[in-house]
Design the sequence.
RNA sequence: GCCCUGUUAGUGAAGUCAGGCGAUCACGCUAGAUUGUCGAUCUGGUAUCACGGGUUCAAAUCCCGUACAGGGCGCCA
């Protein structure tokens, strides 16, 4: 018995022909006489019929059939009798009258039904992932992921990019995220690290003259998980030589436009808009603004810097800022809702959330109204465009805290107020990031992007004198408030790279040890180059409209980075450890 | 590391606030009936309080701890 068709292929044009279908039993309906079975494969369902008047022996055998049994059936394609068609099924006009049945395999009763509508905890689904993956929705996601990958490869191939592999067993670079370490057996006591990204290798490939490189590649980071973060994830990684920001953006836009056309049949408008980092923070509080709705933030530090309200004036005096978010027409928020918003922002370390309701007569209803002079109030009304029916929220603190708190509150309100058009795909490039930020806990400067990002030329001199004001040639692509890609023009000059590493507080000895190979390569004729990496999983999430990254990864890990299907990670045996020269220290 | 939420038959839920449960419902599964269903139908059956400790005459319910899962903060160059 050899399969001739798949389970969504047959229609009225096949009536009368003999076919062989193979697949899983979706459902059996036994009417005593006739037995119906919905047979499923990855393409769809076909109803197969066992009728005792057609074939008594096969009908008897069909009694053994249970859910998820694997069958091969030979039979005739019949047009369904009058009134018995099922318009909800693609193959609802026909059925297979079975003449031969082969039970290819039996199956235990699955823990849940293989249907999209079922409501099963993720825990159970992940424990039986191989079964969960049979569900049409998940299959659709995984297939879409494949299509996305094909589309991207087609585009990059057409643009002269070469797919080149880079090592997985590589050198640990303790900058940035925590590495997954792999102990070496032949070099006991030494460890490889799994790559957080192929960053340095792709730069080396440019120095080797490959000109354009890409890879759809797994990356690893040993950090805590989120709804959109897995310890191993896939990146669309690319790098180009002899180019500037515009070239990389153009290639990226072409790739994304083709992707959306191929996968969703949506025509995107390119080029995508650009916005500087400073503008994004100023207006939206976050470097990945969701531009599907307004609700911009307004800085009112100047107006309230001398106000009687100490929370505001002191914040400004201590180098902080005061910003406002006007929720137009939302004065109907209850006290409870306002309190909830207050709780919401404390997650982002804001100490509180002041608010003002503008009443119909223009008066302010607010616990803090009494602290402001009429002049201050009028200035605020003008600056924030306060009108009757509005509620305005205020944040006052260090800039980072105010921006993050109000930025997230803005997203929260956009969601809650239904301001977001869920069908919209809003892209924006964020450019001119700061090169460095100051890490308060470690008391040193850190690269915002990574240490190989080029500063803008005008700021070279400020690397040593005023590092925080240095802008970088880094850019992120943001889609609907989520960062889907980021990259930069890299440093290709050895001396500049040394200065950049020194700005991070690294001593010569340190950087020679960690990045000596890079510095040596930079001295041997490195071309100007730059690139970008897209988070493939996040892109696919958005293309599939899935809120969880686990729904677009076949075998994802849980929040504790374990695999419920295989029970990884698990203890290593004594002999394995001896081979590696390792000893487990347990202090529990 | 921290905050929040959850864990009740195979699956999903009710019961938990206010202790009285000998735990309810649906689906599934199973046996029988049934020749046109497609979320088949009808009749019967089936199986459960995450784990450990405590309070109490009595604990699914209250308290403490643990494990696991999820969301978030920190972290993620």
Sequence:
């Amino acid at each position: 018995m050899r399969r001739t068709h798949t389970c969504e292929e047959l229609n009225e044009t096949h009536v009368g022909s003999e076919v062989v279908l193979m697949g899983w039993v979706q459902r059996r309906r036994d009417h005593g006489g006739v037995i119906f079975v919905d047979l499923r494969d990855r393409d769809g369902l076909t109803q197969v019929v066992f009728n005792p008047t057609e074939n008594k022996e096969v009908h008897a055998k069909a009694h053994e059939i249970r859910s998820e049994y694997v069958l091969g059936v030979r039979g005739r394609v019949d047009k369904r009798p009058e009134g018995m068609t099922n318009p909800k099924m693609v193959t609802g006009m026909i059925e297979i009258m079975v003449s031969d049945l082969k039970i290819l395999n039996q199956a235990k009763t699955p823990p849940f039904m293989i249907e999209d509508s079922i409501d099963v905890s993720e825990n159970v689904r992940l424990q039986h992932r191989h079964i969960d993956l049979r569900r049409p929705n998940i299959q659709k996601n995984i297939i879409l992921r494949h299509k996305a990958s094909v589309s991207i490869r087609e585009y990059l191939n057409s643009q002269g990019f070469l797919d080149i592999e880079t090592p997985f067993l590589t050198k640990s670079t303790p900058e940035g995220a925590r590495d997954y370490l792999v102990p070496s057996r032949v070099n006991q006591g030494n460890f490889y690290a799994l790559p957080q990204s192929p960053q340095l290798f792709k730069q080396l490939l440019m120095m080797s003259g490959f000109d354009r490189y890409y890879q759809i590649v797994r990356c690893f980071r040993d950090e805590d998980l989120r709804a959109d973060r897995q310890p191993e994830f896939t990146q669309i990684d690319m790098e180009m030589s002899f180019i500037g920001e515009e070239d990389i953006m153009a290639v990226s836009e072409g790739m994304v436009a083709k992707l959306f056309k191929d996968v969703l049949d949506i025509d995107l408008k390119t080029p995508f808009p650009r916005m500087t980092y400073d503008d994004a923070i100023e207006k939206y509080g976050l470097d990945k603004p969701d531009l599907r709705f307004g609700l911009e933030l307004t800085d009112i530090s100047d107006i309230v810097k001398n106000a009687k309200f100490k929370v505001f004036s002191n914040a400004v005096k201590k180098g902080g800022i005061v910003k406002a978010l006007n929720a137009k027409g939302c004065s109907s928020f209850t006290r409870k809702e306002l309190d909830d918003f207050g709780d919401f922002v404390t997650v982002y370390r804001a100490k509180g959330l002041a608010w003002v309701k503008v009443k119909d007569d223009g008066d302010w209803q607010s616990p803090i109204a009494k602290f402001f002079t009429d002049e201050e109030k009028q200035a605020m009304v003008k600056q924030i465009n306060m009108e009757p029916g509005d509620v305005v929220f205020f944040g006052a603190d260090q800039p980072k805290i105010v921006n993050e708190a109000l930025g997230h509150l803005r997203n929260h309100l956009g969601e809650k107020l239904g301001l977001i058009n869920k069908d919209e795909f809003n892209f924006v490039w964020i450019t001119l990031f700061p090169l460095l930020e100051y890490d308060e806990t470690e008391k040193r400067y850190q690269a915002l992007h990574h240490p190989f990002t080029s500063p803008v030329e005008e700021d070279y001199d400020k690397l040593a004198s005023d590092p925080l004001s240095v802008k970088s040639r880094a850019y992120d692509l943001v889609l609907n408030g989520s960062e889907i890609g980021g990259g930069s023009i890299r440093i290709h000059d050895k001396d500049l790279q040394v200065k950049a590493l020194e700005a991070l507080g690294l001593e010569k000895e340190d950087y020679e040890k960690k990045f000596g190979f890079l510095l040596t390569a930079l001295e041997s004729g490195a071309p100007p180059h730059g690139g970008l990496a897209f988070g493939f999983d996040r892109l696919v999430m958005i293309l599939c409209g899935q809120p969880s990254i686990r729904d677009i990864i076949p075998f994802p890990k849980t929040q504790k980075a374990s695999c419920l299907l295989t029970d990884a990670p698990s203890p290593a045996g004594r002999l394995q450890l001896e081979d590696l020269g390792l000893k487990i220290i347990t202090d529990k």
Notes: The first strand of chain A starts at residue 18 and ends at 30. The mean pLDDT of chain A is 94.
